[in-house]
Amino acid sequence: MLAKLKLVKTPKGIDSVLMLSAMLILWIGNYSNLDLMIADSMFDGERGHFAGGDSALAGSFQFGMILLGAAVIGLAIWDTLRPLAWLASRRSVLRSVALSVVLVPPSIYLLSSFSDMPCPTDLLRYGGLEPYARMLETLPASASGMVCLPAIQANTAWWLLALPLFWLPGRPRTALLLAGVMLLCGLASGWQQQLQGAQFFTHTLWSAWIAAFLIHLLHNLFRTEDALA
């Protein structure tokens, strides 16, 4: 266990985790039927629609994430103008988290604009007009443009994956535990969208992976700057 935590603390170890997780998500999306199995379980065939509807709880969660993100950005701006009594490493983490709030949601949205993957509600299988296609498959030229991969509906929550940086490198166990909690929060928000037929499970996983990759880059960038200072 300690060896695994030591590996995660190193840049090469995190790079390996990101690479392996991307390969796993790619395999699930292209060589398994997990997406369809989950979507089928949420679709009411008799009524012809997905089980989930608009959720006030989901909306409140999104609004809460926006407020929390704004607070983090405000704290980072305050620290820039009137530096807090923090170590330089802690200040770098704050900037990484604040930039994650700013960059993660639009990055996911921008990447989704290059995708033509169908959403569940667009599929013939669920009453739509489009054929089902996996990530590495080519859609017919007649298919209409869609924005469903990566999932954008819950992207305001994925910057939370940057919060465990505050516990690195000193407390890797706490950071790993908190990362798991933040991942579950993001997956729960994505699950609500899946209940509405707005996205597939792997679409949510790709959003999480993109957020983690971007946060990793930001953290390395500021850590390098601190080393050169």
What is shown here, in short?
The chain is mostly helical and 229 residues long.
Features:
7 helices, mainly alpha, two-stranded antiparallel sheet, 62% helix, disordered N terminus, 229 residues
Structural overview:
The protein has 229 residues and is mostly helical. The chain has one domain (54-138, 148-228). 62% of the residues lie in helices and 2% in strands. It is built from seven helices and two strands; from the N terminus they run H-H-H-E-E-H-H-H-H. The chain has helices at residues 2-9, 11-31, 34-42, 56-81, 88-112, 172-195, 201-228, and strands at 43-44, 49-50. Strands 1-2 form a two-stranded antiparallel ribbon. Helix 2 (11-31) packs antiparallel against helix 7, helix 5 (88-112) packs antiparallel against helix 7 (201-228) and helix 6 (172-195) packs antiparallel against helix 7.
